[in-house]
Protein backbone atom coordinates (compact mmCIF):
# COMPACT_ATOMS: atom_id res chain seq x y z
CA UNK A 1 0.00 0.00 0.00
CA UNK A 2 1.15 3.57 -0.70
CA UNK A 3 0.98 5.89 2.28
CA UNK A 4 -0.68 9.29 2.10
CA UNK A 5 1.47 11.95 3.73
CA UNK A 6 0.67 15.50 4.78
CA UNK A 7 2.96 18.15 6.21
CA UNK A 8 3.35 17.98 10.00
CA UNK A 9 0.59 15.33 10.26
CA UNK A 10 2.79 12.43 11.26
CA UNK A 11 4.68 9.48 9.73
CA UNK A 12 3.21 5.97 10.18
CA UNK A 13 5.54 3.86 12.32
CA UNK A 14 5.77 1.14 9.66
CA UNK A 15 6.86 3.68 7.02
CA UNK A 16 9.42 5.18 9.39
CA UNK A 17 10.88 1.70 9.95
CA UNK A 18 11.13 1.02 6.20
CA UNK A 19 12.71 4.40 5.48
CA UNK A 20 15.18 3.84 8.32
CA UNK A 21 16.18 0.43 6.92
CA UNK A 22 16.52 1.86 3.41
CA UNK A 23 18.65 4.71 4.76
CA UNK A 24 21.17 2.39 6.38
CA UNK A 25 21.35 0.01 3.41
CA UNK A 26 21.69 2.85 0.88
CA UNK A 27 24.57 4.69 2.53
CA UNK A 28 26.37 1.39 3.20
CA UNK A 29 27.16 1.12 -0.52
CA UNK A 30 29.79 3.84 -0.10
CA UNK A 31 31.69 2.05 2.65
CA UNK A 32 31.74 -1.65 1.78
CA UNK A 33 35.02 -1.16 -0.07
CA UNK A 34 37.10 0.10 2.86
CA UNK A 35 38.07 -3.29 4.38
CA UNK A 36 38.37 -4.82 0.89
CA UNK A 37 40.95 -2.57 -0.75
CA UNK A 38 43.85 -4.88 0.01
CA UNK A 39 42.02 -7.87 -1.46
CA UNK A 40 40.97 -5.83 -4.51
CA UNK A 41 44.61 -4.84 -5.09
CA UNK A 42 45.69 -8.48 -4.91
CA UNK A 43 42.90 -9.75 -7.16
CA UNK A 44 43.51 -7.20 -9.92
CA UNK A 45 47.31 -7.23 -9.41
CA UNK A 46 47.45 -3.47 -8.99
CA UNK A 47 49.27 -1.22 -6.53
CA UNK A 48 47.66 0.14 -3.39
CA UNK A 49 47.20 3.61 -4.91
CA UNK A 50 45.10 2.18 -7.75
CA UNK A 51 43.01 0.21 -5.26
CA UNK A 52 42.61 3.31 -3.11
CA UNK A 53 41.05 5.03 -6.14
CA UNK A 54 38.00 2.78 -5.63
CA UNK A 55 37.31 4.47 -2.28
CA UNK A 56 38.17 7.93 -3.62
CA UNK A 57 35.86 7.67 -6.63
CA UNK A 58 33.01 6.36 -4.49
CA UNK A 59 33.28 9.44 -2.29
CA UNK A 60 33.53 11.73 -5.32
CA UNK A 61 30.41 10.06 -6.74
CA UNK A 62 28.50 10.65 -3.51
CA UNK A 63 29.56 14.29 -3.55
CA UNK A 64 28.37 14.67 -7.17
CA UNK A 65 25.08 12.99 -6.27
CA UNK A 66 24.56 15.45 -3.43
CA UNK A 67 25.32 18.41 -5.65
CA UNK A 68 23.47 17.44 -8.83
CA UNK A 69 20.90 14.73 -7.95
CA UNK A 70 19.43 15.92 -4.64
CA UNK A 71 18.33 19.35 -6.03
CA UNK A 72 16.30 17.47 -8.64
CA UNK A 73 14.03 16.43 -5.78
CA UNK A 74 12.62 19.96 -5.81
CA UNK A 75 11.85 19.77 -9.54
CA UNK A 76 10.82 16.15 -10.24
CA UNK A 77 8.85 13.44 -8.47
CA UNK A 78 11.05 12.20 -5.65
CA UNK A 79 9.41 8.78 -5.89
CA UNK A 80 10.62 8.38 -9.48
CA UNK A 81 14.06 9.70 -8.60
CA UNK A 82 14.42 7.31 -5.66
CA UNK A 83 13.29 4.28 -7.67
CA UNK A 84 15.60 5.19 -10.55
CA UNK A 85 18.53 5.58 -8.17
CA UNK A 86 17.95 2.11 -6.73
CA UNK A 87 17.95 0.54 -10.20
CA UNK A 88 21.20 2.28 -11.12
CA UNK A 89 22.77 1.40 -7.76
CA UNK A 90 21.95 -2.30 -8.18
CA UNK A 91 23.42 -2.31 -11.70
CA UNK A 92 26.63 -0.53 -10.66
CA UNK A 93 27.14 -2.90 -7.71
CA UNK A 94 26.71 -5.89 -10.02
CA UNK A 95 29.22 -4.34 -12.40
CA UNK A 96 31.80 -4.12 -9.59
CA UNK A 97 31.15 -7.71 -8.54
CA UNK A 98 31.61 -9.10 -12.06
CA UNK A 99 34.37 -6.74 -13.30
CA UNK A 100 37.56 -8.20 -14.75
CA UNK A 101 39.16 -4.79 -15.35
CA UNK A 102 39.87 -2.32 -12.54
CA UNK A 103 38.74 0.54 -14.80
CA UNK A 104 35.22 -0.89 -14.75
CA UNK A 105 35.38 -0.96 -10.95
CA UNK A 106 36.43 2.70 -10.92
CA UNK A 107 33.56 3.84 -13.15
CA UNK A 108 31.01 1.67 -11.35
CA UNK A 109 32.25 2.96 -7.98
CA UNK A 110 31.65 6.53 -9.12
CA UNK A 111 28.09 5.61 -10.14
CA UNK A 112 27.55 3.67 -6.90
CA UNK A 113 28.49 6.74 -4.87
CA UNK A 114 26.27 9.06 -6.91
CA UNK A 115 23.25 6.75 -6.57
CA UNK A 116 23.65 6.20 -2.82
CA UNK A 117 22.30 9.61 -1.83
CA UNK A 118 18.75 8.38 -1.09
CA UNK A 119 19.06 9.13 2.65
CA UNK A 120 19.27 12.82 1.74
CA UNK A 121 15.79 12.43 0.22
CA UNK A 122 14.45 10.40 3.15
CA UNK A 123 15.64 12.53 6.09
CA UNK A 124 14.04 15.83 4.92
CA UNK A 125 10.89 13.86 3.97
CA UNK A 126 10.60 12.46 7.50
CA UNK A 127 11.29 15.87 9.04
CA UNK A 128 8.69 17.61 6.85
CA UNK A 129 5.86 15.14 7.43
CA UNK A 130 6.45 14.19 11.10
CA UNK A 131 4.21 15.66 13.75
CA UNK A 132 5.95 18.64 15.44
CA UNK A 133 6.27 16.78 18.74
CA UNK A 134 8.03 13.85 17.00
CA UNK A 135 10.26 15.61 14.47
CA UNK A 136 13.44 15.54 16.54
CA UNK A 137 12.89 11.93 17.59
CA UNK A 138 12.16 10.71 14.07
CA UNK A 139 15.08 12.54 12.47
CA UNK A 140 17.29 11.17 15.25
CA UNK A 141 16.17 7.63 14.36
CA UNK A 142 17.02 8.26 10.70
CA UNK A 143 20.43 9.72 11.56
CA UNK A 144 21.16 6.75 13.83
CA UNK A 145 20.36 4.32 11.02
CA UNK A 146 22.56 6.35 8.69
CA UNK A 147 25.43 5.99 11.14
CA UNK A 148 24.80 2.26 11.60
CA UNK A 149 24.87 1.84 7.82
CA UNK A 150 28.19 3.69 7.53
CA UNK A 151 29.95 1.85 10.32
CA UNK A 152 28.17 -1.52 10.12
CA UNK A 153 28.93 -1.87 6.40
CA UNK A 154 32.63 -2.31 7.18
CA UNK A 155 31.90 -5.15 9.58
CA UNK A 156 29.52 -6.89 7.17
CA UNK A 157 31.79 -6.59 4.14
CA UNK A 158 34.80 -7.93 6.03
CA UNK A 159 32.93 -10.98 7.29
CA UNK A 160 31.38 -11.77 3.90
CA UNK A 161 34.66 -11.27 2.03
CA UNK A 162 36.54 -13.55 4.40
CA UNK A 163 33.95 -16.32 3.92
CA UNK A 164 33.10 -16.03 0.20
CA UNK A 165 35.44 -13.45 -1.35
CA UNK A 166 35.17 -9.71 -1.83
CA UNK A 167 32.97 -9.95 -4.94
CA UNK A 168 30.17 -11.59 -2.96
CA UNK A 169 29.87 -8.38 -0.94
CA UNK A 170 28.73 -6.54 -4.06
CA UNK A 171 26.37 -9.29 -5.21
CA UNK A 172 24.63 -9.18 -1.83
CA UNK A 173 24.60 -5.37 -1.89
CA UNK A 174 22.93 -5.44 -5.32
CA UNK A 175 20.30 -7.79 -3.92
CA UNK A 176 19.69 -5.41 -1.02
CA UNK A 177 19.19 -2.51 -3.44
CA UNK A 178 16.62 -4.61 -5.32
CA UNK A 179 14.86 -5.27 -2.02
CA UNK A 180 14.86 -1.52 -1.27
CA UNK A 181 13.41 -0.80 -4.71
CA UNK A 182 10.53 -3.23 -4.10
CA UNK A 183 9.91 -1.81 -0.64
CA UNK A 184 9.87 1.81 -1.84
CA UNK A 185 7.75 0.92 -4.90
CA UNK A 186 5.05 -0.46 -2.61
CA UNK A 187 4.93 2.30 0.00
CA UNK A 188 6.17 5.64 -1.38
CA UNK A 189 3.54 8.14 -2.54
CA UNK A 190 4.14 10.28 -5.64
CA UNK A 191 5.98 13.04 -3.72
CA UNK A 192 5.56 15.62 -6.52
CA UNK A 193 7.92 18.50 -7.23
CA UNK A 194 7.64 21.53 -4.95
CA UNK A 195 9.78 24.19 -6.63
CA UNK A 196 8.69 26.13 -9.69
CA UNK A 197 12.21 27.24 -10.64
CA UNK A 198 14.26 25.76 -13.45
CA UNK A 199 17.15 23.42 -12.64
CA UNK A 200 19.64 26.06 -13.80
CA UNK A 201 18.20 28.72 -11.50
CA UNK A 202 18.07 26.27 -8.63
CA UNK A 203 21.75 25.38 -9.08
CA UNK A 204 22.67 29.06 -9.38
CA UNK A 205 20.89 29.73 -6.10
CA UNK A 206 23.34 27.37 -4.37
CA UNK A 207 26.17 29.74 -5.21
CA UNK A 208 24.19 32.73 -3.91
CA UNK A 209 23.45 30.93 -0.62
CA UNK A 210 27.12 30.02 -0.18
CA UNK A 211 28.12 33.66 -0.69
CA UNK A 212 25.34 34.95 1.57
CA UNK A 213 26.29 32.98 4.70
CA UNK A 214 29.94 33.21 5.82
CA UNK A 215 29.15 30.84 8.69
CA UNK A 216 28.12 28.15 6.21
CA UNK A 217 31.56 28.39 4.60
CA UNK A 218 33.34 28.23 7.96
CA UNK A 219 31.34 25.30 9.35
CA UNK A 220 31.57 23.35 6.09
CA UNK A 221 35.32 23.93 5.76
CA UNK A 222 36.28 22.75 9.22
CA UNK A 223 33.98 19.71 9.01
CA UNK A 224 35.32 18.83 5.54
CA UNK A 225 38.94 19.04 6.67
CA UNK A 226 38.17 16.84 9.67
CA UNK A 227 36.43 14.36 7.35
CA UNK A 228 39.59 14.30 5.25
CA UNK A 229 41.56 13.29 8.35
CA UNK A 230 38.92 10.69 9.17
CA UNK A 231 39.05 9.07 5.72
CA UNK A 232 42.84 9.17 5.66
CA UNK A 233 42.70 6.55 8.40
CA UNK A 234 39.89 4.37 7.08
CA UNK A 235 41.01 4.40 3.44
CA UNK A 236 44.52 3.12 4.24
CA UNK A 237 43.75 0.95 7.26
CA UNK A 238 43.19 -2.17 5.13
CA UNK A 239 46.64 -1.81 3.55
CA UNK A 240 48.22 -1.35 6.97
CA UNK A 241 46.47 -4.37 8.49
CA UNK A 242 47.45 -6.65 5.59
CA UNK A 243 51.13 -6.10 6.41
CA UNK A 244 53.40 -7.15 9.28
CA UNK A 245 52.93 -7.44 12.17
CA UNK A 246 49.18 -8.05 11.67
CA UNK A 247 48.71 -9.99 8.40
CA UNK A 248 44.98 -9.61 9.08
CA UNK A 249 42.20 -11.06 6.96
CA UNK A 250 39.24 -9.09 5.66
CA UNK A 251 37.12 -10.31 8.59
CA UNK A 252 39.51 -8.82 11.16
CA UNK A 253 39.78 -5.56 9.24
CA UNK A 254 35.99 -5.36 8.98
CA UNK A 255 35.59 -6.18 12.65
CA UNK A 256 37.47 -3.00 13.50
CA UNK A 257 34.22 -1.32 12.48
CA UNK A 258 32.87 -2.35 15.90
CA UNK A 259 35.39 0.08 17.39
CA UNK A 260 34.06 2.76 15.07
CA UNK A 261 30.52 2.07 16.22
CA UNK A 262 31.57 2.34 19.85
CA UNK A 263 33.45 5.57 19.24
CA UNK A 264 30.66 7.20 17.28
CA UNK A 265 28.07 6.11 19.86
CA UNK A 266 29.55 8.55 22.36
CA UNK A 267 27.95 11.39 20.42
CA UNK A 268 24.54 10.18 21.64
CA UNK A 269 25.52 11.23 25.16
CA UNK A 270 27.04 14.59 24.28
CA UNK A 271 24.73 15.82 21.49
CA UNK A 272 22.42 17.58 23.97
CA UNK A 273 25.28 19.87 24.97
CA UNK A 274 25.84 21.26 21.46
CA UNK A 275 23.28 24.05 21.92
CA UNK A 276 24.84 24.88 25.30
CA UNK A 277 28.51 25.12 24.29
CA UNK A 278 28.19 25.86 20.57
CA UNK A 279 29.47 24.33 17.36
CA UNK A 280 32.85 26.09 17.52
CA UNK A 281 33.75 24.65 20.91
CA UNK A 282 32.55 21.21 19.84
CA UNK A 283 34.66 21.49 16.69
CA UNK A 284 37.73 22.40 18.74
CA UNK A 285 37.08 19.58 21.18
CA UNK A 286 36.43 17.03 18.42
CA UNK A 287 39.50 18.23 16.53
CA UNK A 288 41.69 17.82 19.62
CA UNK A 289 40.37 14.27 20.07
CA UNK A 290 41.13 13.45 16.43
CA UNK A 291 44.61 14.93 16.78
CA UNK A 292 45.31 12.57 19.69
CA UNK A 293 43.81 9.74 17.63
CA UNK A 294 46.25 10.29 14.77
CA UNK A 295 49.24 10.59 17.11
CA UNK A 296 48.17 7.30 18.69
CA UNK A 297 47.77 5.67 15.27
CA UNK A 298 51.23 6.89 14.25
CA UNK A 299 53.18 5.95 17.36
CA UNK A 300 51.15 2.86 18.30
CA UNK A 301 50.26 1.67 14.82
CA UNK A 302 52.09 -1.65 15.15
CA UNK A 303 49.81 -2.90 17.92
CA UNK A 304 46.12 -3.74 18.00
CA UNK A 305 45.77 -1.60 21.13
CA UNK A 306 47.09 1.47 19.33
CA UNK A 307 44.89 0.91 16.28
CA UNK A 308 41.75 0.29 18.34
CA UNK A 309 42.27 3.36 20.55
CA UNK A 310 42.88 5.49 17.46
CA UNK A 311 39.66 4.26 15.82
CA UNK A 312 37.62 4.88 18.97
CA UNK A 313 38.93 8.42 19.26
CA UNK A 314 38.78 9.39 15.60
CA UNK A 315 35.15 8.24 15.22
CA UNK A 316 34.07 9.99 18.43
CA UNK A 317 35.80 13.21 17.39
CA UNK A 318 34.46 13.12 13.83
CA UNK A 319 30.84 12.57 14.85
CA UNK A 320 31.07 15.44 17.35
CA UNK A 321 32.35 17.82 14.66
CA UNK A 322 29.87 16.70 12.02
CA UNK A 323 26.78 16.76 14.24
CA UNK A 324 27.65 20.14 15.75
CA UNK A 325 28.24 21.84 12.41
CA UNK A 326 25.36 20.26 10.49
CA UNK A 327 22.77 21.02 13.16
CA UNK A 328 23.93 24.64 13.31
CA UNK A 329 24.01 25.37 9.55
CA UNK A 330 20.51 24.05 8.84
CA UNK A 331 19.09 26.82 11.03
CA UNK A 332 20.54 29.53 8.77
CA UNK A 333 17.68 29.75 6.27
CA UNK A 334 14.37 27.99 6.88
CA UNK A 335 13.21 28.58 3.30
CA UNK A 336 16.33 27.02 1.78
CA UNK A 337 17.08 24.34 4.35
CA UNK A 338 17.53 21.57 1.74
CA UNK A 339 19.93 23.66 -0.34
CA UNK A 340 21.90 24.73 2.74
CA UNK A 341 22.22 21.07 3.74
CA UNK A 342 23.19 20.14 0.16
CA UNK A 343 26.00 22.68 0.20
CA UNK A 344 27.23 21.56 3.60
CA UNK A 345 27.17 17.86 2.72
CA UNK A 346 28.79 18.43 -0.69
CA UNK A 347 31.72 20.33 0.83
CA UNK A 348 31.87 17.75 3.63
CA UNK A 349 32.25 14.84 1.21
CA UNK A 350 34.68 16.84 -0.92
CA UNK A 351 36.92 16.93 2.14
CA UNK A 352 36.56 13.16 2.55
CA UNK A 353 37.40 12.57 -1.11
CA UNK A 354 40.50 14.76 -0.98
CA UNK A 355 41.59 13.10 2.27
CA UNK A 356 41.23 9.65 0.74
CA UNK A 357 43.18 10.68 -2.37
CA UNK A 358 46.01 12.41 -0.50
CA UNK A 359 46.32 9.58 2.03
CA UNK A 360 46.55 7.07 -0.82
CA UNK A 361 49.46 8.97 -2.39
CA UNK A 362 51.19 9.30 0.98
CA UNK A 363 50.75 5.59 1.66
CA UNK A 364 52.15 4.65 -1.75
CA UNK A 365 55.35 6.66 -1.16
CA UNK A 366 55.82 6.76 2.62
CA UNK A 367 53.55 3.99 3.99
CA UNK A 368 51.96 4.52 7.42
CA UNK A 369 54.19 7.44 8.42
CA UNK A 370 53.11 9.39 5.35
CA UNK A 371 49.45 8.53 5.96
CA UNK A 372 49.71 9.71 9.57
CA UNK A 373 51.29 13.00 8.53
CA UNK A 374 48.47 13.50 6.01
CA UNK A 375 45.84 12.82 8.68
CA UNK A 376 47.53 15.15 11.16
CA UNK A 377 47.76 17.90 8.53
CA UNK A 378 44.06 17.72 7.70
CA UNK A 379 42.92 17.86 11.32
CA UNK A 380 45.42 20.64 12.12
CA UNK A 381 43.91 22.71 9.28
CA UNK A 382 40.42 22.03 10.65
CA UNK A 383 41.49 23.29 14.06
CA UNK A 384 43.11 26.32 12.43
CA UNK A 385 39.78 27.27 10.81
CA UNK A 386 38.02 27.09 14.19
CA UNK A 387 40.77 29.11 15.93
CA UNK A 388 40.96 31.73 13.20
CA UNK A 389 37.28 32.44 12.58
CA UNK A 390 35.47 33.31 15.80
CA UNK A 391 31.99 33.35 14.30
CA UNK A 392 29.02 34.68 16.25
CA UNK A 393 26.80 31.81 15.09
CA UNK A 394 26.33 29.04 17.68
TrEMBL record:
Domain Major facilitator superfamily (MFS) profile: 15-393
Record-linked InterPro entries: MFS, MFS_dom, MFS_trans_sf
Protein name stated in the entry: MFS transporter
Transmembrane parts of this sequence: 50-70, 82-99, 105-128, 140-164, 170-193, 214-240, 252-270, 345-366, 372-389
Keyword Transmembrane recorded: yes
Pfam families: MFS_1
PROSITE patterns recorded: MFS (PS50850)
Alphabetical UniProt keywords: Membrane, Transmembrane, Transmembrane helix
Organism annotation: Parabacteroides faecalis
Record SUPFAM superfamilies: MFS general substrate transporter (SSF103473)
Amino acid sequence: MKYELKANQGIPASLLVMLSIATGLSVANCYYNQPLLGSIATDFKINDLSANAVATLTQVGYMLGLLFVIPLGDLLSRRKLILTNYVLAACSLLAIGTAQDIRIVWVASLITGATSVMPQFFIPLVSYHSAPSHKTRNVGIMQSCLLVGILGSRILSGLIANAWGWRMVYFIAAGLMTYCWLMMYKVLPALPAQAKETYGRLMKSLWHILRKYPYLRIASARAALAYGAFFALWSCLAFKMKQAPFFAGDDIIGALGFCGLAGAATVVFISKYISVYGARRFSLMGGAVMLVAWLTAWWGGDSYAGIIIAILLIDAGMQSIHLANQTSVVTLDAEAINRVNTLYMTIYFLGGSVGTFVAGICWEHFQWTGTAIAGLTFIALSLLVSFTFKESKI
